[in-house]
Structure formats: C-alpha cells, structure tokens
C-alpha cells in the first residue's frame, strides 16, 4: 500500500470518528439556536445573531464538564464578529460577549500559576489602567466607568484567555479556529470584489454578509490571520501548503478591501519575521514583496490628495486631527473621559488615531500610561523565546501600526492580538512543563466534534 493511499485511509477514519462525535452536537446546537431565535426575535435587536451566540454557549457549557475550556474554544471564531446584539436594551458586540464568557472560564478553570512574562504583561496593563483611573474620577458618567473595565478586559482579559488555551495544550486548535474564520471572511470579501469588478466598480470591496463590515475592520482582521498563517510557528505545525494558501487568500482580501493601514501593519509584521529569520526561516528576499504593497498604499494616498476632494479619507483625517487637538486643549491633563463622543455636546466622533484618542479621552496622564504599556509589552515579548515571542510581537506590532491611521479602542481589533499573544505564552509554558514531565497528560484530548488527537496531523511536510 502506497503512502498516499495510507494517508487517505487515515483521513477517512478521522473524518468518520469526527462525525460520530459531532452529529449529536450539531443537532443540539440547531435545536438551541432555533428555540432561542423564536423566543428572542420579537423582543430583541439582532435576535438571530443573539440566538446563535446563546446556542453556541449552550453547547459549550454542556461540553465544559468533560472539557473545561470548551467555552473559551467556542469563543475563538466569535472574537472576530463585531455584529451588535441587543440584550435588555443594551448594545453589546458578539466579540465582547464571547470574550467575557471565555474570560470567566479561563479565570476559573485555566492553568495556574501564570508564567513570569504573563504576570509582567498583566502588571504593565495595570499601569495604563491606573493612569486612566484619573479621567474616570474627574469625568463621572456611566460610559466612562464601563469603558475603563472594558479596556482592561480587551487587554488583560484577552491575555488570560489566550494563556489558558495555550497552557492547556489547545494553542494549535485555538489559532486554527481564528485563522479559519478569517479565511471565511476573506473568501466573502474576494467574492464581493468579483461581483463589484464585474459591473465596473473598482472601489473598496467589503462583505455585507453575514454582517456588514467596514473596509478597515475587515482589513485589520484579515491582517491578523495573515500574520499567523505567514509565520506558522513550528509548535503550531500547519502544513506549508495550507499556511501559504491561507496567507494568500487573506492578503488578497486585504488588497481588494483597499485597507491601507492593514497593509502597513502586515508589512511591519513581515519585517519582524525577517529580523528574526533564524527562528522564522524567512529570507531577506521576501522584503521585495513589500515594494508592491508600499506602492499600492502610496498611490492610493497620492490619488486622494490630487483629487482635492475635501471629503476623502486623507483630508477628512487632517480636519479631524485639528478638531481633536483643539478639543483636547479644553482638558489637557485628564481628558474628557473614555467614550466621551457619546455624550451630548462633546466632539461627536472617536478620534481616528491611537495616541490622539487616548490624549483626548484621558489627557497627558493617560497618554503616558498608554506609552508605558506598549513599550513594556514589546520589551517583555521580545525577550521571551523567539519561537513563541515572534508571533506575539508581530501581531501586536501590526495592531499598533494600524492604529496610527485609524481607531484604536475597538473590541475585535484590540482583543484578538492580545489573545494571540496569550496563546503564545501559554504554549511556551505548556512545552516547558511537558519537557519537565510535570503534566500527567501532555497532549489534551480533543473536543468532541473537533477530531481525534494525533500528533502526526498537520505536521510540516
């Protein structure tokens, strides 16, 4: 029997085992979603979306008795969904709801003790939280306080969720769920572009299904997935063919979405990969691929400047920067409060640049805390084992670069890179404990419906 025939037989057995475990959960999920939809659709905004979220939570909760981190794993695809769900008159994103559920699970059921790098990152985030506490005190309104806790969840909460999954041995599965979801969104984006181009519309292509997406949102999300697929660390172990296909698909999605900041962030991540080529195996020649990306970004900016259209993104940003600067001068030390743009009479938009947003919201004190946080994050992650730290540094640097040209405190775009960083640190600790023989079971059993455990699956070829 040839090796290819043996491989096919093994995959048939795996698929059969997978379906034997999955079918009952598929039926249960369908029933939960259907029941929740009929109950909630008439009384809640986004009833269908909320039904799917609750249905997934029901199935994950049922699995938790045998697989403690099932809820955290089920949350991984949902982290990339910015769709709003109505709940008791509130306005909550699917991503935030999934992160909160995953955080509760990770906090209660995740591995202890935390590693030194993770503890350092959590402490560094507290510096920023302390700095922004002043604006919460000086500007006492509900959204200010809520956002203060929300910002902590997006950073420290996301790190803890990622750590719990990585430390439990689910790093590969968690990253696979994120990348696969991003690939699906990329496919929708490319298909949308094909239909647009067919009728002569060569503007930014953004999918309207399963929910409407802005070009900078879809571009940023695809950039995160592309970075993970491009670096493909050895401890993740995807095949080269799969990782290259995923990277190409998501890069194509970024290009047709025409998200300049996403392209720039992706370029920054590739530079990190080249700087650490002894670990990543990426040649200097890959930098030549950055030339067309840089040309595309520069040409789009030049085209907008030459158009002299005062309402395009370049001129509009210049106007916003001017307005935010004058607004900040009214409260320079502690700012106007987090999410001030929801208050009547205040500047009615979120500043489209990270430091400017923090400056207007939390003043000079908050900006100092923000700078200390990011500097500390990069220093800590740069010092950890490059096999694990490179991906964490690359995805967070990409986010930081993107935010120089767009909004920063946005749920998906902050939580996802910090979850990935947490996964990297957790996977590093899991490998350390495995080598020391501290774990009775070094490889976790798979979730029912996710396939049988097999160390040979997904190894590089």
Features:
single chain, 461 residues, mainly alpha, 2 strands, globular
Question: How would you explain this protein's 3D organization?
Answer:
The protein is mainly α. It is 69% helix and 2% strand. The chain has 16 helices and two strands. It has helices spanning 3-40, 47-63, 70-78, 94-109, 116-138, 142-167, 171-198, 215-231, 240-257, 260-275, 277-280, 290-307, 313-328, 354-383, 386-402, 411-436, and strands at 84-87, 90-93. The chain has a two-stranded antiparallel ribbon with strand order 1-2. Helix 8 packs parallel to helix 10 (260-275), helix 8 packs antiparallel against helix 15 and helix 8 (215-231) runs parallel beside helix 16. The radius of gyration is 22 Å and the shape is globular.
The secondary-structure element order is HHHEEHHHHHHHHHHHHH
Backbone structural class: mainly alpha
Number of strands: 2
Report on the biggest sheet.
Answer: 2 strands, antiparallel
Number of helices, counting only DSSP H or I runs of 4 residues or more: 16
Beta-strand content bin: under 5%
Mean pLDDT across every amino acid position: 81
Strands of the largest sheet, in order across it?
A: 1-2
Relative helix content: 55-70%
Low-confidence stretches: 445-461
Radius of gyration: 22 Å
Question: Shape, please?
Answer: globular
From the N-terminal CA to the C-terminal CA, the straight-line distance is 20 Å
């Amino acid at each position: 029997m040839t090796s290819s025939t043996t491989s096919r037989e093994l995959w048939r057995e795996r698929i059969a085992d997978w379906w034997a475990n999955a079918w009952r959960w598929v039926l249960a999920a369908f029933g939960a979603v259907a029941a929740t939809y009929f109950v909630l659709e008439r009384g809640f905004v986004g009833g269908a979306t909320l039904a799917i979220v609750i249905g997934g939570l029901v199935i994950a909760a049922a699995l938790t008795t045998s697989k403690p981190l099932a809820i955290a794993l089920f949350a991984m695809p949902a982290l990339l969904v910015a769709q709003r769900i109505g709940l008791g008159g509130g306005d909550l994103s699917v991503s935030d709801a999934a992160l909160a559920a995953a955080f509760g699970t990770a906090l209660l059921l995740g591995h202890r003790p935390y590693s030194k790098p993770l503890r350092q990152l959590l402490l560094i985030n507290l510096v920023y939280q302390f700095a922004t506490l002043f604006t919460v005190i000086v500007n006492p309104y509900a959204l200010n306080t809520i956002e203060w806790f929300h910002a902590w969840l997006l950073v420290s909460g996301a790190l803890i969720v990622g750590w719990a999954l990585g430390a439990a041995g689910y790093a590969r599965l968690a990253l696979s769920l994120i990348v696969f979801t991003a690939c699906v969104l990329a496919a929708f984006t490319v298909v949308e572009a094909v239909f647009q181009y067919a009728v002569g519309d060569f503007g930014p292509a953004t999918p309207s299904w399963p929910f409407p997406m802005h070009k900078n949102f879809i571009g940023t999300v695809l950039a995160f997935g592309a970075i993970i697929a491009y670096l493909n660390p050895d401890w993740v172990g995807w095949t080269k063919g799969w990782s290259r296909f995923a990277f190409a698909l998501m890069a194509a999605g970024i290009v047709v979405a025409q998200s300049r900041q996403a392209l720039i962030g992706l370029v920054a991540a590739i530079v990190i990969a080249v700087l650490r080529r002894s670990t990543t195996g990426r040649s200097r020649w890959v930098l030549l691929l950055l030339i067309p990306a840089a040309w595309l970004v520069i040409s789009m900016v030049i085209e907008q400047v030459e158009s002299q259209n005062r309402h395009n993104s370049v001129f509009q940003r210049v106007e916003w920067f001017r307005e935010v600067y004058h607004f900040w001068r009214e409260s320079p030390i502690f700012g106007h409060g987090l999410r001030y743009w929801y208050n009547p009479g205040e500047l009615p938009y979120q500043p489209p640049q990270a430091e400017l947003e923090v400056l207007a919201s939390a003043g000079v004190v908050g900006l100092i805390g923000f700078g200390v946080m990011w500097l500390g994050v990069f220093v800590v992650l740069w010092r950890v084992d490059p096999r694990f730290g490179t991906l964490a540094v690359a995805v967070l640097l990409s986010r930081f670069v993107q935010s120089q040209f767009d909004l920063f405190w946005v749920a998906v775009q902050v939580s996802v890179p910090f979850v990935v960083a947490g996964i990297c640190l957790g996977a590093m600790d899991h490998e350390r404990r495995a080598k020391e023989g501290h774990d009775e079971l070094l490889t976790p059993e798979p979730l029912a419906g996710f396939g049988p455990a097999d160390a040979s699956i997904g190894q590089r070829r």
